[in-house]
């Protein structure tokens, strides 16, 4: 039936899709970051990602820069003369490390999970309904798995429409599910998760070394310079500024480094530690951390030196044209408006997505997987 | 002419067939956080593909992901080197994980071309779905009796 209709329409409809297809071709050149549903900002055509509220990242950068510059200008000449030439060298190395790891933490995708496609969401909903949940709106949306002889509950994320993998949490500030979610750091302006935790750790460790180093050098400078007390008040006001900044920050940064070293050694995240997920709330069960290797060295190595997982959100890939010119030629003519509809589905948050749309999509022609396979820049997203 | 004949090529499928339904194979988290998909044979595919064949494909896929995420000497070396260069080495070097992902993409394409497309099925590389599911598209196939 459909065949016959289609064959009749085909010669007539051929001209019309072409101009539309050309339009779509031009429209098609949209990268996935442009339709990304989470609250993130993208720079350099999707190469760099940042949270929407960049928080105090400029302040962090500014503080580090100002303190280090003051150090090099006012303290280094004196210390090089009186102590050793290695002082600016060490300071320089620490500074470079701190800034690079800060920028990497801020601009790297922390491990954002892409939201479920409408088909996937519909499939999961069907499965949940089949398992006999009471109501549609608030069914017990948890799934239990056993990891390392421990029962772990996986929660269903209503925003991303999927069951969150273990250790994944939804960040409300960025509106994304992030794998191995640690915390959202305003100083860094990004979430800290699976992919950028090692950068974050390097950052706070190198920053604590840098701060402690500058603090030590500045204190030495002031100590060695006390003979000329009058001069102290003139040019050492900058030194005093550095001293104050370093003194105030060294404790908090050192404390944070210590805390994260503990987390790394026990393979925990800040989120789990704060919630007390594995701290043995009920003494009856043995609720240890199922992800820990029970060996400090192995834990450290797996967290910091483990393989670097790829970014799952494919920011620079092109939005697949699901209803491209090829598919138009074989479906009924009506997909033209539907194509545009469905393209938009990728964009808006699922709260805006009425259930009827999710049901419509399965009837659409083939997914542009082949297209996106060829169109996807093969794992060139390093951040 | 419009509908594919008994054996389809991947291109024919992509250009001509209509999607009947999609099946999603979920992740198996019972082995921890490593990327592993359930090898249980979905009931919707019973009429289309051999159970053994499907399970073999899934098992190979799981093995490839295990290889990507393997924590061993080589990955530590890569990690330490990266740490020492303040991770700038990631800008010039392809990580081991990425190399294996390319291998997986080739494997999925090959499986589609050789085995699944002729049966009217299409496997989607899990990376396209955020490593959450293996999406299997079942195409409507008039030439093979009833599709299901």
UniProtKB/TrEMBL annotation, chain A:
Enzyme class, broadest EC rank: transferase
Protein name from the UniProt record: Palmitoyltransferase
Location of the protein in the cell: Membrane
Keyword Acyltransferase listed: yes
Superkingdom classification of source: Eukaryota
Pfam family, one: DHHC
Annotated keywords: Acyltransferase, Membrane, Transferase, Transmembrane, Transmembrane helix
From TrEMBL, chain B:
Highest taxon of source: Eukaryota
GO biological process, one term: protein targeting to membrane
Main subcellular location of this protein, as a coarse class: Golgi
Stored Pfam families: Erf4
Topology versus the membrane: Lipid-anchor
Keyword Lipoprotein: yes
InterPro entries hit by this protein: Golgin_A_7/ERF4, Ras_palmitoyltransferase
Role noted for this protein: May be involved in protein transport from Golgi to cell surface. The ZDHHC9-GOLGA7 complex is a palmitoyltransferase specific for HRAS and NRAS.
Protein name, as recorded: Golgin subfamily A member 7
Species: Oncorhynchus mykiss (Rainbow trout)
